[in-house]
Amino acid sequence: MTEIDIRKIGKKIGLSEKDLFLYGTTMAKIIKSPDNDRKGKLILTTAMTPTKAGEGKTTTAIGLADGLSLLGNRACLALREPSLGPVFGVKGGGTGGGKERLEPEEKINLHFTGDIHALTSATNLIAAMIDNEIFQKSELDLDPESISFPRAMDMNDRSLRRIATCLNPKDGPRHESSFVITAASELMAIFCLCKDEEDFLDRVENITIGKDTSGRNVTVKALNIRNAIRKLMEDALSPNLVQTMEGTPAIVHGGPFANIAHGTNSLIATSLALKVSDYVVTEAGFGSDLGMEKYLDIVSPLGNFSPDLVVLVGSIRAMKLHGGVPFSALEERNDNALVQGFENLLFHYHNGRQYGLPVLVSLNVFPQDTKGEIALVSKLLEEKNIPFALNTSYQEGGVGAKGLAEKVLLMLSSEKKAFHPLVDKRQDVMEKIKIIATHVYGAKDVVYEKKALEQIKNLSEEERHYDVCISKTPNSLSDDPHLLNVPEHVLHVRSLRLFDGARFLVPLTGAVVTMPGLPKVPLAKRMER
């Protein structure tokens, strides 16, 4: 489908050409936000526990926005920017699939408007300034062995998880360092949680970089580079405007990982989308146990908005995998496995309901699904009185999501939300972790390693009141990626990372890493010209 000039897309949501900074005719930065009190309805798309069969969460979000537009509504998407790591690694692009994709797809998946490059550069400027302070033996008197601030790059490279710098003594004292993928960096988390440029800079300056030789914490503010970071980030903080294949406006901005950070687009972008449309469709990364929980316990209270409805994405293929069917046998009908795997979808449904929100299941139908399988899942949903709609937008585009859109509109008009976060910042750190583990992951208990207990004991009073943003595998409700469906488990917390700028604590569980590696055969080897 031919792309519509981005200026016409802007007009659909009340933006004039002077409100936009154009990147050709297909992309633009929104440089001026409308000054109005409009506040559209917010629809959050989440999913059951992800599998390699693909549930189609982003595709569903895009399809729903197109479906709402086809019904004559002023709809807009608010989505994350893709990271190059997954694009060239395992998952591929982050712009949807089939007939429900964002355009210009390749530009969005690659360099886009340079936001992630700006964040990478700002992160590495801080890292370079830290090492220069050490080399110059400045008045900061930094202890090289205490430096905790990592470098960043937007690519999967496991060899950089732990490195040594200054192998030549002439370059300074040798010390350990590390890289994180930019989507897992603290600057990316801050980027998506800040309210404006000054808030972003204040939060960055509050990041702890290490200690001086007397054992006192040193922050980025001591480096005196606020204006340098401002220059690097000046354009990046403006949201990006693109479109779906069917011409629905999409505001795409920021991209933190949900298994490490909070996993959704920027507060700036969502706040803007709510001002310019009647219906905003957004998504949170991975399943309800990760992205949705963090959206509802961290993002919503901070942004002063909450979803009016949750759309929970599920698929027959994913349920069969959770029911024990091997990937190679997914084409074979297996009703017993389907019934067992349905328990995973049911668990995620109740996750949304316990926040006081209406939840609608989108059953994504794929060509391999049989009429019998669709009828079986429909019956299971009906028996539990769970509202649902079939979605075929991957194959048919917006037309395939019209039924889903109609059900969304019906529920928005008939069901009232009674939203309430599950955790409160004022609660004890271990209490917050236990609530999330037991209520959202279904864990029986939480077990702490000695290092984690020591780190919790040493937290300041202010740090104890930070949000908790648990780092956990997305492939299981537990911290073991091999435990599928709804397993019995306990959560193992091995250590904590402190994000003073983002103002959350990150309990590290299982074997989650902040710098992914490439698979044996990366997607980069299989890309078409």
Brief write-up:
This protein is an alpha/beta fold. It has helices at about 5-10, 55-70, 85-90, 105-110, 115-135, 185-195, 195-205, 225-235, 265-275, 290-305, 315-320, 335-355, 370-385, 395, 400-415, 430-440, 450-455; strands at about 20-25, 25-30, 40-45, 75-80, 95, 100-105, 150-155, 165, 175, 180, 210, 215-220, 240-245, 250, 280-285, 310-315, 360-365, 390, 445-450, 465-470, 490-500, 505-510.
Describe this structure in words.
The structure is a single chain. The chain is of the alpha/beta class. Helices cover 34% and strands 18% of the residues. It contains 17 helices and 22 strands. Strands 1, 2, 3, 4, 5, 6, 13, 14, 15, 16, 17 and 18 form a 12-stranded mixed β-sheet that branches. Strands 19-21-22-20 form a 4-stranded mixed β-sheet. The longest helix is centred in the N-terminal third of the chain and has 21 residues, at 115-135. The mean pLDDT is 95.
> What general form does the structure show?
globular
- Count of alpha and pi helical runs: 17
- Give the overall pLDDT as a whole number: 95
How would a crystallographer describe the biggest sheet? 12 strands, mixed
- What is the end-to-end distance? 20 Å
* Beta-strand percentage range: 15-25%
* Amount of helix: 25-40%
* Structural class by SSE content: alpha/beta
| Uncertain residue segments | none
Radius of gyration: 23 Å
How many E strands?
22
